[in-house]
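Researcher: Go.
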Amino acid sequence: MRYIIIGAGAIGATIGGRLAEAGPEVVLVARGAHAQALAADGLRLTTAGGERVHRLPVVTGPAELGELRPDDVLLLTVKTQDAIAALDAWGDAEVAGGGTAAQRLPVLCLQNGVESERLALRRFARVYGVCVWLPATFLEPGVVSALCAPLTGILHLGRAAGGSDARARAIAADLEKAGFGAPVVEDVMRWKYAKLLGNLGNAIQATTGPEPDPAKAALLLRAIREGKAAFDAAGIGYASDAEQAAARDGKVEQPAGVRGGSSWQSLARGTGSVEADYLNGEICLLGRLHGVATPVNETLRHAANIFAREGLPPGAMAVEDLAALADEAVARG
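Model: Structure:
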């Protein structure tokens, strides 16, 4: 199989680099200064085993590859707000022997949140969800680090519509050879909904900084309570804390030190957008559909988007001010 990494940022570049180390063919898809750095100097990927430079094929879109191969696997690792453009561009690409990528090739959705699978299923016939536990950092073009050990990350995967198959198991085998845990599960979205609860704190990190703080933890707990209430009202199941701990403990240990999450990194790179609409916004959507108040998540969603649109530096807001805005939203009802 050849793996095409659509969005070779923190997650995509780490998975692509590690796969290439293990033997499979890998193509990196990137844009702008990052694509230029990857093409000119290679991918500088630092893991717990040290830094390696991977000189891999780099493209900005499917036209540069020509006809895709029947054994290609598409790994969608762009942020959710960029998923539609990527799915449309790659879905229409022709595959050798006839048909398009959307008709013939598997696409794996490796985003936070749960929306990308739904977007992909509207376009692609073979869609797989991946619950990503892979702390990684991407702040400089061409340079990515992922320092967990003994495994680089845990990637639960399965069919987005439920179930598993031989293709998922073959992909999982390649990922495991590359240094990841890759459990194939029948209910991958249950794992992704559980991960979503933790990602509700991305907006807190982005706006108030990644440093641990009891006030930040308290605000996250309020957001998670809203999330669980919305899940319960919608009848959505999610993996328990104990299940997640059993899957990760002792397998993906991070070194000490402050690490900014994906939304914080997006602000630090000045991308102009964050995933808040598909993280905290997912809770707001479920709340509105099922009669559950979600003022804390709406406050976090709105604040993170303002930071992104106005180019504010990550961590520029005091957590007390953010919590006060949430209190005002609760009081308004």
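Model: Residues 63 and 93 are 8 Å apart (CA to CA).
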